[in-house]
């Protein structure tokens, strides 16, 4: 073989190797295609805690002096979604929408039959993927209780009881919320009772409850790759169902905001993708992730 032939073959091999290396770098850095872009759209927090409050419009909470903790700590140090919306009225269908991507035919706040649906939902998807899930429900009489109401507890705010593919034992009392936050499930929901969630009591009452009961977790989340999401089921029926939604924790860019229009289905899709789930429940399947707020 001539020297020139050897040189041409070596040059061709080098060009091929360079192209392969460039492609690999593109995929690794997120510069090289749809697969990498999709994988890098949202972060991968170790723990996500979602707390749902009640029946207040965006303007009643964001910027309000009655909610100093939510505004001055969580919003200021986290991310604010300025165009976040509930799906409908009254309360209960919104909880099902957020949890399962569908209202599941629920149109009112009446007490449904436990386990009436086997549709996919956030908990069933997490458990099916070998991940962990729990809800922590203030004033729930006992772990797994399916009672409709008890004092200031109301099951209408607890959609997980509607699904036969979610163990009732995963519904815990708020007293069972761990003090060692590293033992929290991959994803958990916290549901305050009818006073603490601002339904029967004031915005100030709910804000104080949030600080006293989840403030320590929020502080911990800032340094432990974890996330706190604070949202509402619906507005006060006077503001087009525009609701407050604030995200806080190490994966979030402090002081960021997004004016993109999002709803409960976008939040559900984001929760699924934060934990790398391959399936998406109901309308979350066609929803977009929440973006533009995540720390690099």
Instruction: Measure the end-to-end span.
Output: 52 Å
Average pLDDT reading: 90
Total tally of structural domains: 2
Spatial strand arrangement across the major sheet: 7-4-8-1-9-11-2-12
- By secondary-structure content and strand pairing, the structural class works out as alpha/beta
Helix content: 25-40%
Question: Unreliable runs, pLDDT <50, ≥5 residues?
Answer: 1-39
Number of strands: 13
H/I helix tally: 8
Q: CATH superfamily of the largest domain, please? A: Alkaline Phosphatase, subunit A
CATH topology of the largest domain: Alkaline Phosphatase, subunit A
Strand content: 15-25%
Instruction: Give the CATH architecture of the largest domain.
Output: 3-Layer(aba) Sandwich
Major sheet characteristics: 8 strands, mixed
- Top-tier CATH class of the largest domain: Alpha Beta
Q: Roughly how many Å is the radius of gyration?
A: 22 Å
Q: Report the oligomer.
A: single chain
Anisotropy-based shape: globular
Helix and strand element order: HHEHHEEHHEEEEEHEEEEEH
What does this structure look like?
- It is a single chain.
- By secondary structure, the chain is of the alpha/beta class.
- It has 2 domains: 1-40, no CATH class; 46-286, Alkaline Phosphatase, subunit A.
- Helices cover 32% and strands 16% of the residues.
- The chain is built from 8 helices and 13 strands.
- The chain has helices at 3-29, 34-39, 58-61, 68-77, 91-100, 122-128, 203-221, 264-274, and strands at 47-53, 79-81, 84-85, 133-137, 149-150, 153-154, 171-173, 187-191, 226-232, 242-243, 245-249, 256-258, 262-263.
- It has an 8-stranded mixed beta sheet.
- β5 (149-150) and β6 form a beta hairpin.
- α4 (68-77) runs parallel beside α7 and α5 (91-100) runs parallel beside α8 (264-274).
